[in-house]
């Protein structure tokens, strides 16, 4: 996959139900809101949907809620020709969830998400950073016996994209993400006592803090996941590494120097 991927679009008058179907069917965490002429009006993320359901969707049918009610109207639009490091710098400086690629006429022609940059890091960089250099330390962790609703509430109120789940001995047993929550979105409106262990991803992929960051990036790119728990030798979570962290690493001066040296070496033969 190149830097720019095919755009996933919805219309402002589409319903929440239709948007859920699009995201689940195409397995994408974000979509562009487009007008009839193919020009961008905004963006929608999984977090936007879950936040709306939590605060406003309790008594409404998903087929009555329009995209215009929960979409983000502020977004970053860029032209074709952007390279990976330029994209990483925009992501990091603007703190946006995606980039909308438009033609000279202003029409949508593609999109870039952070997962695309993780693949680039994994394919080009080796031995430059350790996982511990960019991971988030002391991540939020809850028990597998917690209710789905309480984890949903925690994710929305703390603006989390995922939560690590521990067993009774404090070892990582699973992870739950915004993607998982979308699959049960209609049932999040009631305070169900269903345990999160019935929805989690069991035995998640994990990395150690002294591993090469490229290994974590490759894991995320190949498995199409956005985060990986970081554990110690006892199986306990000491951090979490995400595609946002990979993007941050790409903005470092050490990456520019590394890629420049590779370019100089390979072009000299």
Offer a concise description of the structure.
The chain has helices spanning 16-26, 46-56, 67-70, 84-94, 114-124, 131-134, 148-157, 178-183, 213-223, 243-250, 253-266; strands at 9-10, 30-34, 40-45, 76-79, 98-102, 108-113, 136-137, 141-143, 162-166, 172-177, 201-202, 207-208, 227-231, 237-242. By secondary structure, the protein is an alpha/beta fold.
Give a written overview of the molecule:
With 269 residues, the chain is of the alpha/beta class. It folds into two domains: 9-124, CBS-domain; 131-249, CBS-domain (Roll), CATH 3.10.580. Helices cover 38% and strands 22% of the residues. It contains eleven helices and 14 strands. The strands form four sheets. It has a four-stranded mixed β-sheet. It is flat and about 55 Å long. The relative contact order is 0.15. The model has no long low-confidence stretch (mean pLDDT 94). This is CBS domain-containing protein. Residues 3-60, 71-131, 135-193, 200-257 form the CBS domain. Keywords: CBS domain.
Descriptors for this entry?
single chain; 269 residues; alpha/beta; CBS-domain; 2 domains; 4-stranded mixed sheet; 11 helices; flat; Diverse_CBS-Domain; CBS domain-containing protein; CBS_dom_sf
């Amino acid at each position: 996959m190149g830097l720019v991927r095919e755009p996933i679009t919805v219309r402002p008058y589409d319903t929440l139900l239709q948007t859920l179907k699009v995201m689940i069917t195409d397995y994408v965490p974000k979509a562009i809101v487009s007008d009839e002429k193919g020009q961008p009006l905004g963006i929608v993320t999984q977090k936007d949907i879950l936040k709306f359901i939590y605060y406003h969707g309790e008594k409404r049918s998903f087929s009555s809620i329009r995209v215009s009610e929960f979409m983000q109207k502020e977004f970053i639009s860029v032209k074709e020709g952007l390279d990976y490091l330029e994209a990483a710098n925009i992501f990091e400086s603007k703190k946006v969830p995606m980039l909308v690629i438009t033609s000279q006429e202003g029409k949508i022609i593609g999109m870039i998400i952070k997962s695309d940059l993780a693949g680039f890091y994994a394919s080009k960089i080796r031995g430059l950073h350790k996982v511990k250099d960019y991971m988030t330390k002391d991540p939020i962790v809850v028990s597998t016996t917690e209710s789905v609703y309480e984890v949903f509430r925690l994710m929305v109120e703390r603006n989390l994209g995922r939560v690590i789940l521990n067993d009774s001995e404090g070892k990582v047993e699973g992870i739950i993400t915004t993607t998982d929550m979308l699959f049960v979105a209609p049932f999040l409106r009631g305070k169900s006592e269903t345990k999160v262990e019935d929805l989690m991803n069991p035995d998640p992929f994990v990395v150690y803090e002294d591993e090469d960051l490229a290994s974590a990036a490759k894991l995320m790119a190949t498995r199409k996941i956005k985060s990986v728990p970081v554990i110690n030798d006892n199986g306990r979570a000491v951090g979490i590494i995400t595609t946002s962290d990979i993007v941050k690493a790409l903005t470092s001066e050490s990456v520019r120097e590394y890629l420049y040296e590779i370019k100089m070496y390979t072009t000299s033969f």
